[in-house]
């Protein structure tokens, strides 16, 4: 999850002073209003068994930039640093993936279902020549999409997401390093201690949020649909073939050097596996790269987009 913790910390102080109720809920509502002030509208589509919720600045005759978030949070909080930067020159579309935020489905939770839902959104909006970017679990989704529907895409950007180069041993080593029995325990927190652990392994410099704030994130940004989210994680190792092979569009990989979830070597191996033209590794950044190094991230991504 990529959380705009600098803004959240400021809001926490303001809410404590003014005796707000649920601080995280109020923060989320204010973030939605900020998106609206920046020219975005919240939309939803009900089709093919999916309820798809997304933000769209509806900038006509502009290149299309579609961001897919990872495990935890929702679209608007995960990509806020990119949404407001790129909205000047691009039509920016940010969906909530299924069973996160406001999106859900009657279909079986799986990577294939996520890819199908993204295709439903793209077809419904009649999008072409898409610049598609995904982080972490969202990276698996966009890699799978690029394999299945390469003609839809102009470029692809993978952020801290290893595709099929991650091994079962590496996953187990990660779980042991953070003190959990399995990957579900790491990414579906049950209480504030679990949230704190997740933030600690996601950030190079983890945010210092009070325990009661961490607890309030559960059911809003974390663990909103825990059974479906667990099923997604259990399904993921079965889909390595769908996220492998050479990409057929210009591809950029961006990675945090201190990522504890997926190591730097995964980025190097992934570049070879998918034939990505460019790989950039950012120092002093973890799994939450688009926030921790948002200025450098945005500059590098825009350079790539302008060149393709």
Model description:
- The chain has one domain: Rossmann fold.
- It has 14 helices and nine strands.
- The two termini are 28 Å apart.
- The radius of gyration is 18 Å and the shape is globular.
- Strands 1, 2, 3, 4, 5, 6, 7, 8 and 9 form a nine-stranded mixed β-sheet that branches.
- Helix content is 45%, strand content 16%.
Structural class: alpha/beta
**Which term fits the overall shape?**
globular
The CATH class assignment is: Alpha Beta
Distance between the termini: 28 Å
Order of helices and strands: HHEEEHHEEHEHEHHHHHEHEHH
Assess the beta-strand content as a share of residues.
15-25%
By DSSP (H or I, 4+ residues per run), the number of helices equals 14
Proportion of residues in helical segments? 40-55%
How many domains make up the coordinates? 1
Spatial extent as radius of gyration: 18 Å
CATH H-level superfamily: Alpha/Beta hydrolase fold, catalytic domain
Please render the helix and strand layout as text.
Layout: H1 5-18, H2 23-37, E1 41-47, E2 50-56, E3 64-68, H3 75-78, H4 80-86, E4 91-95, E5 104-105, H5 111-124, E6 130-135, H6 137-148, E7 153-159, H7 168-178, H8 183-187, H9 192-202, H10 211-217, H11 226-235, E8 251-256, H12 264-274, E9 278-282, H13 289-292, H14 294-306
Parallel strand pairs: 3-4, 3-6, 6-7, 7-8, 8-9
Antiparallel strand pairs: 1-2, 2-4, 2-5
Helix pairs in contact: 4-14, 5-6, 9-10
């Amino acid at each position: 999850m990529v959380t705009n913790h600098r803004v959240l910390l400021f809001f926490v102080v303001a809410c404590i002073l003014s005796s707000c109720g649920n601080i995280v809920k109020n923060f989320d509502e204010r973030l939605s209003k900020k998106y609206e002030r920046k020219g975005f509208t919240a939309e939803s589509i009900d089709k093919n068994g999916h309820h798809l919720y997304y933000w769209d600045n509806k900038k006509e005759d502009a290149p299309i930039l579609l961001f897919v978030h990872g495990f935890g949070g929702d679209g608007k909080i995960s990509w806020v640093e990119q949404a407001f930067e790129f909205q000047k020159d691009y039509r920016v579309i940010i969906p909530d993936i299924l069973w996160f935020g406001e999106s859900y489905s009657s279909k079986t939770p799986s990577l294939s279902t996520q890819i199908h839902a993204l295709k439903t959104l793209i077809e419904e909006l009649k999008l072409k020549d898409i610049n598609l970017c995904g982080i972490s679990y969202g990276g698996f989704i966009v890699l799978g999409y690029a394999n299945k529907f390469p003609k839809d895409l102009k470029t692809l950007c993978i952020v801290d997401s290893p595709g099929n180069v991650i091994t079962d041993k590496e996953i187990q080593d990660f779980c042991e390093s953070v003190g959990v029995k399995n990957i579900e325990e790491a990414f579906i927190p049950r209480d504030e201690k679990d949230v704190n652990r997740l933030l600690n392994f996601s950030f190079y410099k983890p945010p210092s949020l009070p325990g009661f704030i961490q607890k309030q994130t559960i059911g809003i940004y974390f663990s909103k649909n825990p059974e479906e989210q667990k099923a997604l994680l259990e399904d993921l190792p079965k889909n390595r073939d769908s996220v492998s092979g050479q990409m057929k569009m210009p591809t950029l990989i961006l990675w945090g050097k201190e990522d504890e979830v997926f190591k730097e070597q995964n980025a190097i191996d992934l570049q070879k596996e998918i034939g990505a033209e460019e790989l950039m590794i950012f120092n002093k950044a973890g799994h939450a790269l688009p926030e921790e190094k948002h200025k450098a991230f945005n500059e590098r991504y825009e350079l790539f987009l302008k060149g393709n």
